[in-house]
Sequence to fold (413 residues):
Amino acid sequence: MSNTTTFWPRAIALIDMNAFFASVEQRDFPSLLGQPVVVTNGLRGSCVITCSYEARAHGVHTGMVLPQARKLCPKLVQRPARPEVYARVSTSIMRAIENICPDIEVFSIDEAFVDITPCQKLYSSPIHAAKLLKAAVYEASGLLCSLGLSGDKTTAKYAAKLQKPNGFTVIPPWDAKARLRHVPVTELCGIARGIGGFLANYGVTHCGDMEKLPISILARRFGNLGRRIWYMCQGEDPDPLHSEIAAPKSIGHGKVMPPDTRSRDVILTYAQHMAFKVGTRMRKHQLEARTFSIGLKTEFGWIGQKARLALFSDDQRKIYQLCREVIQAHWQGESVWQIQVTALDPQPAAMQLDLFAASAAEQQMQARLHLAMDGINQRYGALTLSPARLLGRSDMPNVIAPAWKPNGLRQTI
Ligand SMILES: [Mg+2]
Fold:
């Protein structure tokens, strides 16, 4: 059976950018090429967000503290992160991928699953389509990626890990079970140590051990997730690509303010932060809203009102503008204890064109940029990327503490 002409029952690719942030730095500053580069949160950041392969060769890795990294590699070059640039690059990479195969799941700022199944005939084979994807990523960004191709998400992700940087690893679906047989279960994406310990108690340490364990044991303990894990280990992860997330009924964020806040500037900063959080959450759920409840709890009770936008939107700038108007109309200098901003009527984003926007293309670009920013914030902690007013305010308790933790925010199963 020839790989190049056979159609696959399912064909899933995982594209993973190599040392993404560090590679963008090396691309934009050629003097950094071949150098051990670490990217940190500003120049005062003390944690390695990501590092180039030259730094990795010395044992430096993500999450390491800088003094330790310097001990391993005295010639380390530190670069402050440029999140806006990374968001733009990510956005254009995702768009390039979609231009070839439209079914994608953006897994993180630098990773995407691509369902090649529906378009494999168009490109004559899954492998050829995957090659086009890899070339398109390079053309859009000038950056290398590692691509794993298989018949399911878990095996594709495992395949992408096998060869870095600039990898291209194919595990045809009919080989997946055999290829995973001697792989430790905890190497598969999503099998955290907790589940690994549970499986080890049943003598399952490697994927090949799984078929000896009745699926009912996993199902009883972990429900559907348990069933999925049973199939995952045998190269048959049934999970489809997720491009949408279940919609909530209302989306609100509130915050207690520092005692006795009477500063208009501080109140507006909190308002902008809440607008930012509401906008971020709406975009995460692909929702837009038109009516917002905006309230301030003052020494005399709640003030504020429901306010409406002209059109449905997920744009935090418009939400913040509403906040400004409401605060202007209702707040008269009394001390404020708390702020609450809630989208009352979130609906699936219709992608209606805002007639007042400069152009549809610009608006689409803005929407994509928001998505990429959300990805960075999700990975590195809230407000790694945010409007200028919110940056440099780390003296404000609990508002923009850069809560970055390596892998801390990823949901594992
Ligand atoms: Mg990566």
